[in-house]
Amino acid sequence: MRSKQQWEVSAYCPECRQSFPMLISTDNAQLDLYKDYLTKMLMDGRPVSKCEKCGANHEGFVIKPIYTKRSS
User: Fold this and answer.
1) Count of domains in the chain?
2) All residues at 6 or more sequence positions from 14 whose CB lies less than 8 Å from its CB, including other chains
3) Is residue 71 predicted with pLDDT exceeding 80?
4) What are the φ and ψ backbone dihedral angles of 7, each rounded to 5 degrees?
5) pLDDT tens readout for residues 20-47
6) pLDDT given at position 56
7) Is the pLDDT of residue 72 over 60?
8) In this predicted structure, what is the pLDDT of residue 36?
9) Whole-angstrom Cα distance, residue 36 to residue 52?
10) Which domain covers residue 16, as residue numbers?
């Protein structure tokens, strides 16, 4: 049986210069809702979220697949 693809939504912190995961999911509907929400926040000029390490506003976000190693 094939497992569903996992996706990670990450935000970028300009102060720490790192990406931090915000959501990990296999549900495409949940990912679409979250993407629409974050896009609206950016279009309105509001920060996506705040960095837990330094408190700076995150700039932008990416959605990327999480690759897992296949067992032979």
Assistant:
1) 1
2) 56, 59
3) no
4) -125, 145
5) 888 899 988 999 998 898 889 888 888 7
6) 86
7) no
8) 92
9) 23
10) 6-66
Give Cα 24 to chain centroid, integer Å: 8
Query: What whole-number distance in Å separates Cα of residue 22 and Cα of residue 35?
Result: 11
Token output for 25: 């999911």
Cα–Cα distance for residue pair 36/69, rounded to 1 Å: 30
Q: Centre a 10 Å sphere on the Cβ of residue 16 and count the other Cβ atoms it contains.
A: 14
58 belongs to a structural domain: yes
Report yes or no on 72 lying in a domain: no
Exposed/middle/buried for 38, CB within 10 Å: 0-12, 13-18, 19+?
buried
Cβ neighbours, 10 Å, residue 67: 8
Q: How much is the CA Rg of the chain, to the nearest whole Å?
A: 14
On whether the CB atoms of residues 62 and 10 are closer than 8 A, the answer is: yes
**Global pTM value:** 0.71
